[in-house]
Design a protein that fits this description.
2 copies of one chain form a homodimer. Chain A has about 220 residues and is α+β, with helices and mostly antiparallel strands. Chain A is about 40% helix and about 15% strand. The first copy, chain A, folds into 3 domains: about 60 residues, Winged helix-like DNA-binding domain superfamily/Winged helix DNA-binding domain (Arc Repressor Mutant, subunit A, Orthogonal Bundle); about 60 residues, Winged helix-like DNA-binding domain superfamily/Winged helix DNA-binding domain (Arc Repressor Mutant, subunit A, Orthogonal Bundle); about 70 residues, SH3 type barrels (Roll), CATH 2.30.30. The first copy, chain A, has 8 helices and 8 strands, in the order αααββαααββαβββαβ. The first copy, chain A, has a 6-stranded antiparallel β-sheet. The first copy, chain A, starts with a helix and ends with a strand. At the A-B interface, α5 and α6 of A face α5 and α6 of B. Chain A binds a DNA duplex (30 and 30 nucleotides) through α3.
Chain lengths: ~220, ~220
Amino acid sequence: MLSYTEENYLKAIYHLSDSGTKAVLTSEIAETMNTKAASVTDMIKKLSNKNLIAYEKYYGVKITKQGRHEALMVVRKHRLWETFLVQKLQFSWDEVHDVAEQLEHIQSSLLIEKLDEFLEFPTVDPHGHPIPDKSGKIVEVRQIPLSECSGKKKIIVRSVKHGSPSFLQYLSKIGVYIGASVSILDKVEFDGSLEIMIDSKKKVFISREAAQNLLVTE
Amino acid sequence: MLSYTEENYLKAIYHLSDSGTKAVLTSEIAETMNTKAASVTDMIKKLSNKNLIAYEKYYGVKITKQGRHEALMVVRKHRLWETFLVQKLQFSWDEVHDVAEQLEHIQSSLLIEKLDEFLEFPTVDPHGHPIPDKSGKIVEVRQIPLSECSGKKKIIVRSVKHGSPSFLQYLSKIGVYIGASVSILDKVEFDGSLEIMIDSKKKVFISREAAQNLLVTE
DNA sequence: ATATTTTTTTAGACTAATCTAAATTTTTAT
DNA sequence: ATAAAAATTTAGATTAGTCTAAAAAAATAT
């Protein structure tokens, strides 16, 4: 069984590796975990000994099949708890992250399966991120940043790339939510900002950064 | 802020001291925490330095006002989570303890207040134990062991003294639950066992130990 | 191609929580 | 009242996770 800290490292490596596809550097892990490279090296050795990652000195790590599965189970728990907090306890989507960071480490498969059932087997969390099922399977929907959309087609907001509380609060303020329908009215040459229409009733300008951080389907 | 371990020690001391009224010995703590006396001495010093307990060498510890409050907050969280697991996730009352032991350490006052509200401010948990409110207040209802009841008055089962999974499973099996109405039909001289009627429809014999572990109001 | 910079690893130390073994204090028994 | 037993504390060691400083390797820049 993995420790609290091991689970956190493994999850960080999973996310940094694009869901387990590419290698991750010691320094990247140190940055996202807010630790020093020396500490990361120590933990890398531990996870490597448990066959959760493949480690080659000085060349970073790659997550193994087993490691990917363990990481997915933590991600599953995190996202189910976030869904619970928003749907059942009336948290707003910008308040759930830190609490879910704690809840994701509760060890009880009975709990998580019952929670999943209670929530009626959701496939995405409050930020639009997919929830792995019991076996680790994810339903991936191809999404692109709003900043890369063209023309006047109907666009649906599917998820946020990075869900910082301040970005999420901003979205709420301007009326953007997961599932919202938007259309692009104009693109400003000067700074790449967009004028968009939300739900056919509200016009707003959003910056290029914001548009790059909103993932949509056309 | 208290560590996971400090919270557990404090909670154990609270329970062993009859809700903070009497002194507790090092060896008692060691026994319930499954640790050695030497480890307990170390932790006692830590909690004492934080003014959560009053410690006199060789004479055990007494919980302070502040320590009692901290312990009550952990107890509150434990019992609210148990209530959630049974009422919302359909756990049975013998399955909740170990999971609640983990959940009680989640740090978020927003979470616990919202959970309380979601459960509609319950006053007792699935084992009939009182749930402290936000400020630590407990509604104590005077209860006596079923073994000490006399005559044929109407008796209501209020709580279990010690809720081990096996005892709880046994109660379910014979049809006893919190709130059940029982009456005493006969007391066996030989071994102190009782013949009782449950909800005016089922007669069973229960041992003296079982009767001592069931708390009721007459 | 070699020197400089950057990244990574190693070595050694620290804290929290635990342990065993030894020393000390209290309790119990005669 | 004193000796034996039991409980408690102290001393010193261990493990997980972290750190700083130094050494080693890789990347980069001229």
